[in-house]
Amino acid sequence: MITRGRRLPRWTPYAVAGGSLAVAEVTEKTTVVSGRSGVVLVAVATYLVASTAISAGVEGRRRCIDRLAGTLLGAALLMALIPLVLVLGYTVAQGMHRFDATFLLHSMRNVAEQQPGGGAYQAILGTIEQVGIAAALAVPIGLGVAVYLAEYGHAARLGRAVGLVVDVMTGLPSIVAGLFIYAFWILLLGFSFSGFAGSLALAVLMLPTVVRSTEEIIRLVPHGLREASLALGVPVWRTILKVVLPTALTGIVTGVMLGIARVIGETAPLLLTVFGNPSINADPFSGAQSGLPLFIFNEAQQPYPAAIDRAWAAALALVLIILGLNVAARLLARVASTVNRR
Amino acid sequence: MRGDRAFRLVVTAAGIVVLMILAAITIFLIVEAVPALRADRANFLTERHWSPDENPPRFGIAALALGTLMTSVLALLIALPVSVGTALFLTQYAPRRVSVPLGYLVDLLAAVPSVVYGLWGLIVLVPHLIPLSAFLADHLGFIPVFASNQTYGRSVFAASLVLSVMVLPIIAAISREVFLTTPVEQVEAAYALGATRWEMIRTAVLPHGRPGLVSAAVLGLGRALGETIAVALVLSANFDISVHILTPGGNTIAANIANAFGDAGTIGRGALIASGLVLFAFTLVVNLLARAVIVRHRNTLGAPR
Amino acid sequence: MAQRIEMSGVHAYYGSTLAVEDVSLTIQERHITAFIGPSGCGKTTVLRTMNRMHELVLGARVEGKILLDDEDLYDPGVDPVAVRRTIGMVFQKPNPFPTMTVYQNVAAGLRLNGARRGRGSDELVEQALRRANLWDEVKDRLHRPGAGLSGGQQQRLCIARAIAVEPEVLLMDEPCSALDPISTLAIEDLMLELKERFTIVIVTHNMAQAARVSQTTAFFTIAGAGQPGRLVEMGPTATIFSTPSQKTTEDYVTGRFG
Predict the structure, then answer these.
(1) Does C139 fall in a domain?
(2) Contact B28 A180 (CB under 8 A)
(3) Minimal C-alpha gap between B104 and chain C (Å)
(4) Please, are residues C173 and C91 in contact by the beta-carbon 8 Å criterion?
(5) If 0-12 CB within 10 Å is exposed, 13-18 middle and 19+ buried, where does residue A116 land?
(6) CA nearest B168: which of B58, B252, B61, B86?
(7) What single string gives the DSSP state of each residue in A8-68?
(8) What's the domain range around C34?
(9) Which domains does chain B have, with CATH numbers?
(10) Same domain for A258 and A216
(11) Residue C51, domain member (yes or no)
């Protein structure tokens, strides 16, 4: 005889949820609970208590715990997504106020913080230059390191050390990278604040991401392909350059794009190396520049509504760029995987 | 094979560059920190205040280090249950059709730059936290942590909350990967004994994932320790050592560097570099720890990484 | 205690693929029934429909009726968890919980079903290990990891874990395929003892094993790649191996095919 587990019908959760909402609405009308958040809180609490009680009564203790666990884990997912929705929602809603041609095409030169108008052109320009140079520095070195780790590094002690250091650098705080470039490039070598100094710091931060994602892709290149080339008498280095890397190309590009998306929002290192500048400075090699994250940071600290609006608009621009890079990287990865499967 | 040797030399050199960067970070931070530390008239490890550009210069890491640890640990405590719960739900409950796009969304949390989180935290979250903070202080105020002088807002609590959102996607992503590697045999063994889904998770998924979860939590902690801009925007900095997380104040090493750098003089900047060195050491230890946990459990974790 | 299982018109699907077509059979209580047949013929799938493990695979479902002493296992009011507690299972690869000790492994099922720690549970663990012929080998290392045992010992540990919760039926999915001959013999002896208390169904690739341990044998086969598996015939083991009624069965048991 199976100890017959009595189960609640499938529609139970929905019914209980509906009931809880009704209870919450009633309490809002009759008691001290007020506001949307109050109703939601009461509804959630009622749901948890009611579904637990009903389940415990009908299905027994174990099923009841199982149901409660499922509910709480689902609630955890919702809690994780709430900030995403709120942050993106606010950024879009608030950013729209000033997300216009003036904002995108003008600088803050001769615009006082309390004045409306002004724009982030100098910041957008600075960001593009800084991140571009950073990528130009980090990608070749990162590729080299990835090839070294994937092709030669596995056995050697040096390879293990490099792998360890790459891991450690993944967790390097961005402000420390900024301090390092400040201490080395500006204090020790005597250069001034510049976009290039910022690029150096961003390159340090980008390097481990590029190495890890590229290394993984290179390892995925089928061994047979490599051997086919070697068997034709092609030397190892030409095999890597002409066979392995081209095969992994889309994956490498994806990794680089994710690496760029990762550092393009970095503020802390720029603060110590680029310094910030309200005017347009198109030369990344001399003099302080601006950058989108820096621009947001400076405007956010102003007490004036016009400045806060500019901060939101710049945040919207930055988020759009980053989301664009992420989506493009994902699409590229998908295209690549379908091509490889064929 | 001349070409092969040259090629190998080139890529090996790239590897050596990585080693040199880490060494250079350590060396140059030390070189630039030492003069300021020499000039310091207070004990760098125990002094709370940060007045390096006064005469005589007095500054120390005590309040900053404590504030850093407090915000990070609090952020971890908030983020850990939510992110592990998220990962469990996505891997064990949600059907695949739903779990993959939802997983992308959780990953997107990591793509939002910290300065945007800081902006949102400062402008939106802080004002909305005031009623919640007042509620906590009124009803739980007898616990010292929640005690308050009736001012709320740009507090350690607010900063930790923002930090926890930033830590969450990291822990969730690693946990998800770890949970997905649970061997089917163990899942089936638990079900075949008559386990409910939750009991199966407790018998098979969680024990298997424990080392991975530990290192995920440690990596999350490392991220929180080094986070600068969000905290710099949300906290209203002071140098008190206080456990009252609801009242404004507190500071962290990273936020202090961002806030104080612009106005700092020569010794001031050296002092900030010294504090950065401490932060660097913190995160170095934390990351090595996380890696050690992974390496030690590589066999049981199945997927080498 | 032990009960019989009746299947009638069972179809098993993985997504839209029909894996097993129209199986009807009866499993006698306190009997060892062996399922034999070539790879991919669906015998494991049929086994897994009996304790509702089949539906754990994404998109998998079952049509038809499976009765355990006249009680429909797939009745909407029946909890699959209760079914699996009543019908235990041993798997192809020994799968003790790696983070648990020998003792904890055996107690795992008991604990799930509400047993408390303490003397009562100690006795149940010992009893299960004795019934699994493992007690003498592990009584000194009860609190060491279960994964430290040899393969054959691990499989007997899994059997102890399965019988500790006192199921009515024990399903065994090629329990010896990962073991050496000596461990295999130990498990076969154990099965003959266990059949005094439990109804046993075993899936095996090893025809000699089916002949040694089972009283009834069911032969499954598959018409070709992509076709669903089918039950060809079922009968007393001696008959199936000497004078089967179907030509395909004869070809298979004599080694001419499969």
Answers:
(1) no
(2) yes
(3) 21
(4) yes
(5) middle
(6) B86
(7) --TTHHHHHHHHHHHHHHHHHHHSS--HHHHHHHHHHHHHHHHHHHHHHHHH-HHHHHHHH
(8) 5-93+170-253
(9) 2-301 (1.10.3720.10)
(10) yes
(11) yes
Q: What is the distance of C-alpha A261 from the center of its chain?
A: 7
- C231: number of Cβ within 10 Å: 23
What's the pTM? 0.89
Closest CA to B65 of B299, B214, B285, B297: B285
Q: Chain A neighbours among C 107-166 (CB < 8 Å)?
A: 112, 114
In chain B, what residues touch A201 (CB-CB under 8 Å)? Answer: none
Q: Which residues of chain C have a CB within 8 Å of the CB of B191?
A: 53, 56, 84
Rounded to whole angstroms, the Cα distance separating A196 from A183 reads 15
Contacting A residues, span 36-65, partner chain C, CB-CB under 8 Å = 59, 61-63
- Picking from B188, B193, B200, B214 by the largest number of C CB atoms within 10 A of its own CB, the best residue to mutate is B193
A235, A300, A326: residue with CB nearest B1: A235
Residues A76-120 pLDDT 10s: 999 999 999 999 999 999 999 999 988 988 898 888 888 888 889
- Count of domains forming chain A: 2
Using a CB-CB cut-off of 8 Å, the residues of chain A touching C71 are 1-2
Q: What is the chain A residue with the closest CA to C70?
A: A1
Pairing mode of beta strands C71-72, C199-203? unpaired
Residues with Cβ within 8 Å of A301's Cβ and at least 6 positions away in sequence, in order, are B233
Residue with the two structure tokens 């609640």: A8
Q: What are phi and psi of C64, to 5 degrees?
A: 105, -175
Pairing label, strands B50-51, B58-59: antiparallel
In 3D space, the residue among B64, B59, B217 whose CA is nearest the CA of residue A175 turns out to be: B64
Interval A225-248: pLDDT, tens: 888 988 888 888 888 888 888 888
Domain that holds residue A159: 121-341
- In this structure, is residue A5 part of a structural domain? no
CATH of residue C231: 3.40.50.300
Question: Residue A66 has which token pair?
Answer: 């199982």
Number of structural domains in chain C = 1
- Are the Cβ atoms of B194 and C82 closer than 8 angstroms? yes
**Same domain membership, residue A91 and residue A125:** no
- pLDDT reported for residue B301: 43
